[in-house]
What does this fold into?
Amino acid sequence: MPSPFMHLTIVATMLLSTAAQAQESSAAAPTTAENKRPVADTLNKAGDIATQPVRDVGVTKREIPAVLERASEDPYSTTGVRTCSQISTAMADLTAVLGPDYVPGQGTKENRAGKLAEAGGKTVVNALIPFRGLVREVSGAAPAERRYNAALDAGLVRRGFLRGLALARGCKLTTASGK
It folds into this structure.
């Protein structure tokens, strides 16, 4: 017989899947990779929310990608980025993990239904574990998440540094911003 935990996890996942489907069906423009990104992001969030309880109790932990580990060691290192090609490759490696770079002047498109479903899903899943914060500290999930978030921050810093390095050297960048 399915446990209450499983039922609540399924409900949270269904909320986010429904939001993704609503997002997908409301797109009036032809299907493109750009249009599919919000739907994919919503489905990824659904998966993250659904697996949060097993991360909270330390059963699984997010692996930090190697490119973020290297960025964490020294985000301002110029080792291995002497040429424009090397800089471009290093930026592409980071973008593959971090997602698209910031584009100045580009507004964000939020899906209200998706945000509500995400908040509802998180609320349902977070209610599953009593004393969640304490459990996360004891299990090692909270420190692991702090390390993961620090690695993400270092990756963002590294990509910004590489962009500045490329601009200073006059490199032609072919990233998401087109600069």
About this structure: Helices lie at 4-26, 33-56, 66-73, 84-98, 112-126, 132-139, 141-168. The chain has a mean pLDDT of 74. Residues 4-168 form one domain.
